[in-house]
Model the fold of this input.
Amino acid sequence: MSKLYVGAARRTIDPTPDMYPMPTRFNIADAYYDSCFCRVIAVGNGEEKLLFVVLELSDYPTVENLIPQLSEATGVKKENILITFTHNHTSPCDESNNHPGRPPETEEQLARREKFKTIELEAALSAAKEAVETMRPARMGYGTVDSFVNVNRDYQSSYGYWIEAPNYAGFSDKTLACLKFEDEEGKLIAALLNHGTHSTCAFLQKDADHKTKTSGNFSGVATKFAEKHFGGDAVIAWTAGAAGNQNPIMSHGLLYEYPDGYVSEVSYPDGVGFMQMEYVGRRHGADAVRCIDSIVCDVDDLSLSHASTMALLPAQKRVPGVQGVIRMGGHGLRDEAEIPYGKVPPLPDFSKVTVPDPEHPVKMYIHLVKLGDVALIMTNGEMYAELGAAIKKASPMEKTVVVTYSTEKSTSYILDRSSKHHRVFQSFSATIPGSADDIILDAVQKLFREN
Done:
């Protein structure tokens, strides 16, 4: 083991004012609400150096050769640069939106996406260089608290629809984990947070001025809250745990059920979604402060290692022309002319919606990062919370954190074995529900054995 050195920096990744209306992954944003950030934490011990790059984006950035460019700018080996994104549903987006049923994007919108790639790249390079250049002797500590801002979102209505709604009886991991880094004078340099929930507050909602807006979402509100509390140049980066079936306690709409079993998603009045985002984010930020304050940094000599593997998961594909994704019964208040009482549409035959696709297994990349006695399992799979908990339980290291939305573009949702019969929209993703538990756990345990 060798002396620990840490540096950190952050940069905004906001569109310029002339880029609005700005495309997002899910719609078009009319205006700016608050900043999205790229945060970088550099950790080294004189022998190895790791770079954690955390972007408040909906998906992995499509900037060409991002990791090689970061490596050239910082001197950090390409294999030791770990990129993760918060899966922020209110962020700008650099990837063309090709969702079915949506009109093709205009040349102007595509040009804005290309310009946003430049903003992402310049921010990442600048923050990474500063993080490396400001590395100084440091101490590390680890701790956890419970943060009750998430809830299971797989809910079966009285009629039988599997819908996205709070399921208070469903499994949910409330653990907010934190790696804390301070300098030799006790000043906070950085903290790396992890919590299992989707950053979906205010998703597809409008603010009080009736405009959709780009934002760092509740996780961005939380990190800014903590950074302001600690002051100075402290960098607080948030990462998502296993959150495939986890939403914030206040997310992006309500589900109204009707006496004959129909169910419909009803949006909040304009402005309410952003108020809820502030509420959840500030509450989570206060939990982050409480966690960081509770940690004693007593490790200043640290071993560092990084290894990776790829697991092939059993795949499925949709049968063309077969209806199957029952996300909600409808949108908006029920239209009695369209669906009168007693005329609820029949559920489809779910067994005919997908078929196995053995020729195209889902590629799941798994990284094991060891920082002393703390292990980070980083993967691109949208795993259910039950799988994240199983990984932590199976780990030979007591202090294990599961980080999703990392290393590569996100793969499909991965339902664990106990959830395989949930006919939520996630179950029609590329991975066969309930098929991957043993494959993932075997791959993780092999990484530990061999590294």
